[in-house]
Design a protein that fits this description.
This protein has 12 helices and 8 strands. The protein is α/β, with parallel strands linked by helices. The longest helix is centred in the first third of the chain and has 13 residues. The structure holds S-adenosylmethionine. The site of S-adenosylmethionine has 23 residues, from helix 5, strand 5 and strand 8.
């Protein structure tokens, strides 16, 4: 079940009832959850469930569920399973045929993408980028052709590295830096990657951040592709497709589409070759 991402008022009536009625509350950090329970004068049994005890504790919780107990799972903030522990427990419970339900509520990704003003109809949530150099580079490269809005989580001390990496691989795109959402110092800065890098090279970032980035421009991608084809001959272009398994007729059709020329012109130029 979801809990607030900063503002304690962001909790549903159902969430409060479930916190009261559950037999056990499994919490990522029991001290953090205790603050929430104290605020709403709720007393209940808390057990910890976090990254490093999720295997043994997961088994314990599933056994409790199999005995008929109700377990409410909460993370430190927002929605469990969204860059937080929860996914494994849900999978385990589902695999044992245990009914699982969701008490929906805040998630920083949703607040960020909605406030960004960037297209929210199609977006890709990427959470935290990998730290491993190679995996990170591959992930960043995979965004080059991604036309959906991209959403990232980042810790303040790593913000500048991530902004620089995004800028270096994807160029100077529109970016929205959403900070301290739902909290007193909430800030939604609609800017560009260049400007964001400059700012955070000169200022230590404070608080929690969501980075929302515009996707690749479909028309620019298409134009870049056409330009790529310009560097090779028609015959080579056709061969790329025949090598990939298409018959010659289908390959010529694809070439005509790629180059925006008629099929007849492709056939005519290639007659006899
Ligand atoms: N499960 C949470 C959710 O539903 O959003 C996310 C947990 S993840 C460990 C923590 C990251 O979420 C932070 O580093 C930050 O990127 C983002 N985040 C959480 N609360 C936020 C807030 N109030 N404002 C901006 N970003 C926030």
């Amino acid at each position: 079940m979801a809990t607030p991402i900063g503002n304690l008022e962001d909790i549903t009536l159902r969430a409060l009832r479930v916190l009261k009625e559950a037999d056990i509350i499994a919490a990522e950090d029991t001290r953090q959850t205790l603050k929430l329970l104290n605020h709403y004068e709720i007393r209940n049994t808390l057990v910890s469930y976090f990254e490093h005890n999720r295997i043994e504790r997961g088994e314990y919780l599933v056994n409790q569920l199999l005995e008929g107990k109700n377990v409410a799972l909460v993370s430190d903030a927002g929605t469990p399973g969204i860059s937080d522990p929860g996914e494994d427990l849900v999978r385990l419970a589902v695999s044992k045929g245990i009914p699982v339900t969701m008490v929906p509520g805040p998630a920083a990704v949703i607040a960020g993408v909605v406030l960004s003003g960037l297209p929210a109809g199609r977006f890709a949530f990427e959470g935290f980028l990998p730290m491993n150099k190679r995996a990170r580079r591959e992930r960043l490269e995979s965004f080059r052709r991604e036309t959906r809005t991209l959403v990232f989580y980042e810790a303040p001390h790593k913000l500048i590295y991530t902004l620089r990496d995004l800028r270096d691989v994807l160029g100077n795109r529109k970016a929205v830096i959403a900070r301290e959402l739902t909290k007193k110092f909430e800030e939604v800065w609609r800017t560009t990657l260049d400007e964001a890098v400059t700012r955070y090279e000169n200022e230590a970032p404070r608080g929690e951040f969501v980075i929302i980035l515009e996707g690749a421009d479909e028309r620019e991608l298409h134009e870049a592709e056409i330009k790529n084809w310009e560097g090779i001959s028609l015959e080579e272009h056709v061969r790329i497709y025949t090598d990939s398994g298409l018959d010659r007729k289908e390959a010529m059709k694809r070439v005509s589409e790629d180059r925006g020329i008629s099929k007849r012109d492709v056939y005519k130029s290639l007659i006899g070759k």
